[in-house]
Automatic annotation (TrEMBL):
Protein name per its UniProtKB record: Transmembrane protein
Record flagged with keyword Transmembrane: yes
Superkingdom, natural source: Bacteria
Transmembrane segments: 42-60, 75-96, 103-123, 143-161
Length: 164
């Protein structure tokens, strides 16, 4: 049936088994480093889009979110604009693209930091100024951005904790 003797066939099978073992080890190693996003990935993508929309709407007085990010409108709103853009847009996009587990933790922690910054930014717009008169209040873009950061924080924590 075959022109190989039994010893040669066993050696060939051993090499095949070693290759299969190496393939399984590589697949397990990759699975350990990545996460499965499922429906949460879509929710995260929608929240990132909402955050980008929030950046083109008014935040502080007549200043839009991207203008606040560029340095106008006060220090606390600028801090929120920076952290929400770094963690909410850039890190989330990178984590969605790579599905790396450690990036989900960066996004989860960073999103909650940005959400707290957002609450402080809203508070700073409602507080009294040096003259004693209350501020003009936050713009609709800032409120949308804070809501999106809270959604991102919840979703990224759920993804990070879901890893087996």
């Amino acid at each position: 049936m075959t022109d190989k003797d039994p010893d040669e066939r066993r050696e060939g099978n051993g090499a095949d088994i070693e290759e299969l073992g190496a393939d399984v080890d590589a697949a397990v190693s990759k699975a350990v480093k990545t996460v499965e996003l499922g429906r949460r990935g879509f929710t995260i993508a929608v929240a990132v889009f909402g955050l980008v929309v929030g950046l083109v709407l008014p935040w502080v007085g007549d200043h839009f979110g991207w203008e606040v990010l560029a340095g106008e409108g006060g220090a606390i709103p600028r801090l929120f604009a920076t952290t929400s853009t770094v963690f909410g847009v850039a890190a989330s996009a990178l984590a969605l693209a790579t599905r790396r587990w450690w990036l989900t933790w960066v996004c989860a922690i960073g999103s909650w930091i940005a959400a707290v910054d957002g609450l402080l930014a809203i508070w700073s717009q409602q507080s009294s100024t040096a003259s004693g008169a209350p501020g003009e209040g936050p713009g609709v873009g800032m409120i949308i951005a804070v809501v999106c950061m809270v959604v991102l924080g919840v979703q990224w924590v759920r993804v990070a904790w879901s890893r087996n």
